[in-house]
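User: Can you fold this complex?
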Amino acid sequence: MLPEVDNGHPIIHRATDYVPPRTWHHWLFGRPLTTADAPHQTIGKFTGLAIFASDALSSTAYATQEILFILAAAGTMAFGYVFPISIVIVILLAIVSISYEQIIHAYPDGGGAYIVARDNMGKLPSLIAGASLLTDYILTVSVSVSAGVAQIVSAYPELIEFRVLISVIAVFGIMLMNLRGVRESGAVFAFPSYFFVAMLYLTLGVGLFRYFSGSLGMVESPPSMDVAISVVAITPFLLLHAFSSGTAALTGIEAISNGIPAFKEPRSRNAGITLIWMAFILGSLFMGISYLTGHIGAVPSETETVISQLARTVMNGRGLMYQLVIWATTVILILAANTAFAGFPRLSAIAAKDGFLPRQMTFRGSRLVYSYGILTLALIASVLIIIFQASVNRLIPLYAIGVFTSFTLSQAGMTHRWWKIGHLKPGQELAERGSTLRFERNWQTKMAANGFGAICTTVVILIFAVTKFLDGAWMVLILIPLLVFLFSLIHRHYRSLANRLSLEVFAGAAPRATRHRVILPLSGVHQGSLEALRYARRLSDDITAVHVSIDPDEAVKVRQKWETWGEGVRLVILDSPYRLFIEPLLEYIEEILTHRQPDETITIVVPQFIPSKAWHNLLHTNTANLLRKELLSRPGIIITDVPYQVP
Amino acid sequence: MLPEVDNGHPIIHRATDYVPPRTWHHWLFGRPLTTADAPHQTIGKFTGLAIFASDALSSTAYATQEILFILAAAGTMAFGYVFPISIVIVILLAIVSISYEQIIHAYPDGGGAYIVARDNMGKLPSLIAGASLLTDYILTVSVSVSAGVAQIVSAYPELIEFRVLISVIAVFGIMLMNLRGVRESGAVFAFPSYFFVAMLYLTLGVGLFRYFSGSLGMVESPPSMDVAISVVAITPFLLLHAFSSGTAALTGIEAISNGIPAFKEPRSRNAGITLIWMAFILGSLFMGISYLTGHIGAVPSETETVISQLARTVMNGRGLMYQLVIWATTVILILAANTAFAGFPRLSAIAAKDGFLPRQMTFRGSRLVYSYGILTLALIASVLIIIFQASVNRLIPLYAIGVFTSFTLSQAGMTHRWWKIGHLKPGQELAERGSTLRFERNWQTKMAANGFGAICTTVVILIFAVTKFLDGAWMVLILIPLLVFLFSLIHRHYRSLANRLSLEVFAGAAPRATRHRVILPLSGVHQGSLEALRYARRLSDDITAVHVSIDPDEAVKVRQKWETWGEGVRLVILDSPYRLFIEPLLEYIEEILTHRQPDETITIVVPQFIPSKAWHNLLHTNTANLLRKELLSRPGIIITDVPYQVP
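Assistant: Here's the predicted assembly.
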């Protein structure tokens, strides 16, 4: 407890000893954490890789297959292009990773595309970046979980009809874990992530050894391809289309830059090293899978994934090793959605703090996580899974546009930032909202790296938009501007609210109202209404009780009782021929409002009946609530509830 | 406007010129009616028969068939018992009708089983009667609509898969008509009712003529019987079982006695004549159908109704006449549900007025109908249709128990009433709640008639309960006591409420409170909260502003601004380490409550933000509402909303 301040204003600061009581919530989500517990909730590189990299790494489970799906249109001989396309994608990965490495060091407090664009490019680009990222986080959950369930279905084909249900249950499982909080989630995620990496390296190692030693055969009884194979020529358009599907492999590498504050100190260094590890693992896995897939004759299919075909060919059938690979892939894919569950709530909280999303998004729940963001993400992702029936192949055209838009904007922003840095004097510092700028010597090289990255990702967006437009990319191209519009609407509301409430333009206390009129609506005369009358008499001597008469017999009773109990207060009985209660009363109040003096305050004192059991509410029409709802929107009316509790 | 009363209490009685504005409601339901419009909404015998008799008459469309369904278990040769069983049922009809004729004259204000049992047998029997009738009204809607749709399906077998949907749509159509009000519904129902009677008499006339002239054949290609025909002997149990299914024909004859107030004056006479007409038409149609059905070899089936088989045999195939019979039957069956829509809301309003159902049931909507009752009925009946998949054969075991229970109770009540009348002195009058008793000379005969009726219907209930117990009657035998229990619970609540509020035990005004404490919760210091402060200062000099601090930076701002704008009022800042807002505030208020003086009033003044657009509410956590919800249940706290509107 702080001492009282000695300036005439007795301001008392009290610590509360309130501890939330134990409920089933604690069992499900863990015990509530105080705000002071927050700094402990950070993670090291090892856990960080598991949490933030699972999205990026797991995309190796479907990226190769999605390239094949497109190439299949030109027949199986087009499959030879898988490996070259993969190499191009890995080069792109390297470029983007270098760019992000620079962002991580520039923005130690978290440098998502939204923040980088906001500080360096202005409001509109930052909103586009935010909308793109939020869209892609949602799709990450839908795609990853659907792809994970596709692995299970590959191993157990009889589950195919339940894949939507299984996917939705998985989303809610991850949601629950995230509502518990980040560190404990990390513990859950660390083992499966590393197990997946180990199993995939093992599969690739055995596969490559058997391939070069000549003992690796072709896929036995491959699944039927669902794609109608027409005799389409292998055009540049087809190859670019396949390339854009494969870029799904890059989704998720931005996650670390958004999540820097979750790392242990020195956080930029820890996050940067994690990013390099991740890029290396991702690139090598993706290349390995694409290389072997081409040599065993795997085909794209909705019923069996390419990973499943690869694993049973390398491991000689569906034995224990096959099962381990499949389950490792399934689990990491389902957990990959966790990356989005770390990123989406954090980004929406940042955007909400800037006034572009509902303020509630900034509230942290009992476990210090952004509960609203987590719930929102789980809900929308589940809806998408249901609409697209958990088909990766139908979801993928919507995916990755958002991520590449944010890549471009953040790198373009960084390019501008380096230019600003290059024009600072040595020793000069420039504090922006998200970071502080200091002169660096090699700014030209770094600007070139980010600039080149921005150009590359812009080209990818154009390829993506053109080749995938009809497949579903148009939805995202409409959705992102819509989201930006929504952000602006929300922002305008908060700004006008702040202006309305601002004390800067406040002229000081208005003249004291001298007259106080009290209106007392009565449904009957009983102890409850007399308590309200007693309170009303404390407020003012100018009281009007009002009874809306639906039943003439009731009106006579009210009149008689009022003569006994009304303490001489004026009673107005309003006839209501249409048996309406609220409307005649509102009309009467409206009439009083039009005749009111400028110095007059009007208070409506409402006797409100409060039953002791909730179901008793069903036995009463709560006119007090209806009345409040109607009256609150009229300026200059104060509403007072005088509750009377009934046992 | 009445003159002001001259006793020191200026009580002003004002007529309101408020007329509800035109909306789409008027187009759907008709223009609102004033209470003064009510007496015009009565009906003559001709319309009365159409409205109140459609239920009873339409049951001829399925009663014969339901007898056949039971007899089928013993093979087709058992079908010979249909006509004898029907004769017994018609005799029962005559007995019950005579009883009801006496009730109608004894209770000109409406003499449903509920009222007769209440005035003559006490509370429990009246509640059982009420529960029975309400249950049966609901089943009337489900059975009639399902049977009507079964006729359509007989004529157009391809519609069989839509029968549940069609039935539910029909229920909501009837609901809409009833929300418009009784007279206009009468106009809609008069033509189909009479058309049905005419078509059925025509069919029976042609059928009987052809039968006696020897030109009536057997049903061509009869539908397959769905009943598994085992070699069951024709036992008394089987015949009683068939009889109890056939008694469904009697459902609905009580409707007129409930609806007497809807008739034009002299209403008892008009209602009584209508009842006799109805009983005669019902009896003759039912006997005719049962007689012919036995001679053409019609079989019970879920795919084609007996009426359809009869009509196409008599009318030589599915020509125009067949179509007219089928459609007449369909329409009257669907409209028969209307009887329940007239009876259910009226009965529930009576029970609600006595405090056994929620008071809202007594409210009449803009068209002077009991809207809540109509909506409730439509909803429950639709749910039953969906559960039983619109199968009459599956619904029928639940049906008729309720009606026969109410028959028994009302006739037993009447028997007691005659006994009371017989013991009055000539010229003496005894006013009860539902009617006035005067001595009558033939009271012994009349008592015998009602007593005999009561015994007959009791026997039917026992037969019904035994033979149909396992078919589903057990559900009703559980449901009715449950409903009676619910009525008692509701009644107890209203009674304890009346006691709590009664001014009989009111000791007069409590000692005037001398101290007034005001608590002002603040989320921030802005124009809205300062308006609330200004109002609080009008109420008292003892004000404590309270800020719950979730964010320390915010607390510093609040403190600084309060020093400038707080007018020297005490501010308490409560730390909230768990980021909760409501709980620490409640704890603080609780603390103040425990230390309060007996003469102290505590008012919480809540600044409430009111956005101009409804969607803006999504952008704010409405802590004012949460706080009100928590505080209203604590005695002795007054809550005042000071709204601040934002453009």
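Chain A touches chain B through 102 residues (CB under 8 Å). The radius of gyration of chain A is 32 Å.
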